[in-house]
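Team,

Forwarding the record for the chain on the shared tracking sheet. I've put the sequence and predicted structure together so nobody has to dig through attachments.
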Amino acid sequence: MLKTVLITGASRGIGAATAELFAENGYTVIINYNSSREKALALAEKTGGLAIKADVSSSEETDWMISEITERFGKIDVLVNNAGISVTGLFDLVSDEDSRRIFDINVFGVLNCTKKVLPHMLRRKYGRIINVSSMWGQTGASCEVHYSAAKAAVIGFTKALAKEVGPSGINVNCVAPGMIMTDMTSCYTEEEINEIKEDIPLGRCGTPHDIAETILFLASERSSYITGQIIGVNGGMII
């Protein structure tokens, strides 16, 4: 029987690369999106999967999404909590609205989706939950204080939940990407990118595919004895 994966924030960047790679490896792919409808539908057509709209920060919308998926496919084998946003700026200049939105998506989005999916995994005594954090959640980044704090929360959540659900056959892990070339990094100039590369031992920025490969590994049986771990995919920038 084909395994089913739900990837949040999957219409572009890391999420889209992950959806494509899982589809290539025989998974039934559910592509969650909130605003990028056309990209999500195009990706669903490409992967043979399903695009489904839901704001993961909303408990009600998340509940509806999981109900729709389980009713149609019967199960969710793998949950990839990828949806996230970032706001760059001095800590005291970031608005209260932006602050809340960062935590709503990056933290409560993870909590909401996991809480709705987990009962189905617990009943089957099987599941893979992969959370996407950031190297800034490990070390902190100037002018990205809120983002760093939210991604650090994802790391703590991963470790704690892994202990709680491990006895039920559910693996929970986290990927912490480094400098990955996506829409989030489009604000950097070429000169700034080159400066960043000088701090990366492997001498290049990462690609969404680099992260997707790690997520696929953590979803596979090859990682069956790995749980509660934070896997840094950063070219050696954080060691």
